[in-house]
Amino acid sequence: MIHELPPLSLYVHLPWCTRKCPYCDFNSHAADGMDESAYIAALLEDAHNDLPLVWGRGIHSIFIGGGTPSLFSPEAIDRLLSGLRALLPVFPSCEITLEANPGSADAAHFRGYRDAGVNRLSIGIQSFDDEQLRALGRIHDRQAALAAVDAARQAGFDNLNLDVMFALPGQSLAGALADLDQAMALQPEHLSHYQLTLEPNTLFHKYPPEPPDDDRVIDMQERCLERLDAAGYQHYEVSAHARSDSLRCRHNLNYWRFGDYLGLGAGAHGKITLPAEQGILRRIRLRHPQRYLNARGAERISEERALTAPDRVFEFMLNALRLNEGFEPALFEQRTGLPLHSIQPLLDRARTRELLETEDGHIRPTELGRRFLNDLQAEFLEPELHVTAPGQVVPDTRFD
Fold first, then answer.
1. Which segments of 36-171 are extended strands (E)?
2. Which of 207, 249, 279, 310 is 20 to 30 A away from residue 78, measured at CA?
3. What's the distance, CA 183 to chain centroid?
């Protein structure tokens, strides 16, 4: 049974970029004809329409993602955050993150975002190598990346994340380490360090560049993790590293712990727990920004469904197993409304494969499980469960 509500976050999607990067599979579109005023109005209308789902609940974190949110003016971000505060109780300690790209904002923009209430900035660096940046289709160069970090500090941001990729086309181990060393030299509070992957529906997938071979990629990953650890960055999630527990990304932690979030904007996803109905609602907005802007009210919702018991199991595990510390059994029961024994055969099978372990009261991936995370998560895909009574789930014994 669901007895208590999880923390509530807010994700706001601003879907425009200067141009689409060839590796990007996010919902982003060229910024030609972007009408920021109309879009801010639509976002606030969405928030107003979702109020009945979250009456009285406070907002723990806000994440403004994209796209390239730093294409929006500080005045637009101020209107957005002021409007959200007028509609929803935003806790004074709320973490408010805005994504920015070098070359799309300057020091004045960063000061304006800070004045509007943004207290965490996430800058998409990806690489400090000009040749790699050109290959990735980025609009900035090394100097612009360094200048963006400097401008953020001058604007007063003391909670800064940098995105840096490795396994870039033709990249050597020395090149990957040089990018990471440069990122750490800037002393960000948080680093997102992740492997370039060739995702479907991207230009790189259609015309793939030559990636480093698997052995080199593993070597890059292991050596980079060693350097991050030596520099004092805690590796708490697959690609996330923080200088301390207090500097972990609270918004993403809420995702990984299967918390609730409203999703506003074109293509945004939301997940809301409804304890009276013992339900969990998944809601998705229209993906294309112009269709989203042309629609009104409920027309902007492209999909709405209640999560079944198997949905809840898989979505919880898909997120929670990304955390190196894993999860406490009580969290699974609180967030899904299902008893842990309902998935005991699945847990046992993952343990037998040495992908999962229990330590210090947490169910967590083993080192092997972290390396083969997709295999571990797949253990919980569409488990055979059936509900015998509200809040009571019994495992089907047909697992093989």
1. 59-66, 90-100, 120-126, 160-166
2. 249
3. 20
| Helix or strand (DSSP H, E) at 386 | strand 385-389
From the candidate CATH numbers 3.40.50.300, 3.90.1150.10, 3.20.20.70, 3.40.50.1400, the one assigned to the domain spanning 8-254: 3.20.20.70
Measure the CA dihedral 237/239/244/248, to 10°: -70
The yes-or-no verdict on residue 388 having pLDDT over 60 is: no
Segment 332-369, tens digit of pLDDT: 999 999 999 999 999 999 999 999 999 999 999 999 99
Task: Give the start-to-end residue ranges of the domains of the chain.
Answer: 8-254, 309-400
Name residue 32's amino acid.
Answer: D
The C-alpha atoms of residue 212 and residue 203 are separated, in whole angstroms, by: 18
User: 283 with 269: CB under 8 angstroms?
Assistant: yes
> Does the reported pTM lie above 0.85?
yes
Residue 276 carries which DSSP code? G
- Contact between 9 and 62 under an 8 Å Cβ cutoff? The reply is yes
Instruction: Give the amino acid at 77.
Output: I
User: Is the distance from CB of 251 to CB of 363 less than 8 angstroms?
Assistant: no
Residue type, 76: A
Closest CA to 193 of 184, 185, 202: 184
